[in-house]
Write a structure and sequence with these properties.
- The complex is a heterodimer.
- In chain A, 0% of the residues lie in helices and 50% in strands.
- Chain A is mainly β.
- In chain A, strands 2, 4, 5, 6, 9, 10 and 11 form a seven-stranded mixed β-sheet that branches. Chain A has a four-stranded antiparallel β-sheet with strand order 1-3-8-7, with no helix packed on it.
- Chain B is mostly beta strands.
- In chain B, strands 2, 4, 5, 9, 10 and 11 form a six-stranded mixed β-sheet that branches.
- Chains A and B meet through strand 5, strand 9 and strand 10 of A and strand 4, strand 5, strand 9 and strand 10 of B.
Chain lengths: 113, 113
């Protein structure tokens, strides 16, 4: 297992289009997290799953955003009707219950033009 | 309002000397603190953590100090090496949820040979 994998690494999309990102966590990790990072800021929490259950969502996660983790394995983050303000690095992380030190992926950089 | 603050955007240190990175927080409910390191084009990497019941945690060249009364923590790197050059993020969690880390904006450390 080579760590947390995120695809694509980069995505450029036109405003108003829908985009979907994928995250493959470390296989034995039951928790999966999504964060967003904009320039000059630290990562901001979006949502997290324990197995397939979505346990917490940030108010940053507007109704244009949806995340899924079917079967408790990989996860997808979809943004509908993208806006320029959605341009950011989207980071996925995973961990085992009871541990705080998440393992982050390298992120998906989204640019909305 | 930022709950986790890293007031120094950057720090420059000579190789072999001590690097001290500082972090302040406002929420007394935080009970776990972490430091992450981030290289360009990579996701953050967990470095070291400390529970609020402790005031010090050491791991090799890295030591984290927690002063709860001052709501302040610091990361000491001794001796500093050029490979330590990266952005360091302080993060905090509350209530044992392990679901939501709140990050500071980061401090860019440059270690000069």
């Amino acid at each position: 297992d080579t760590g947390v994998s995120q695809n694509p690494r980069h995505k450029i999309t036109k405003r108003g289009q829908n985009v979907t990102f994928r995250c493959d966590p470390i296989s034995e990790h039951n928790r999966l997290y999504w964060y967003r990072q904009t320039l000059g800021q630290g990562p901001e929490f979006l949502t997290y799953f324990q197995n397939e259950a979505q346990l917490e969502k940030s108010r940053l996660l507007s109704d244009r955003f949806s995340a899924e983790r079917p079967k408790g394995s990989f996860s997808t983050l979809e943004i509908q009707r993208t806006e320029q303000g959605d341009s950011a690095m989207y980071l996925c992380a995973s961990s085992l219950t009871g541990t705080y030190g998440y393992t982050f992926g390298s992120g998906t950089r989204l640019t909305v033009v | 309002d930022q709950q986790v603050k890293q007031n120094s955007p950057s720090l420059s240190v000579q190789e072999g000397r001590i690097s001290i990175l500082n972090c302040d927080y406002t929420n007394s409910m935080f009970d776990y603190f972490l430091w992450y390191k981030k290289y360009p084009a990579e996701g953050p990497t967990f470095l070291i953590s400390i529970s609020s019941i402790k005031d010090k945690n050491e791991d090799g060249r890295f030591t984290v100090f927690l002063n709860k009364s001052a709501k302040h923590l610091s990361l000491h790197i001794v001796p500093s090496q050029p490979g330590d050059s990266a952005v360091y993020f302080c993060a905090a969690s509350m209530g044992g949820s392990q679901g939501n880390l709140i990050f500071g904006k980061g401090t860019k450390l440059s270690v000069k040979p």
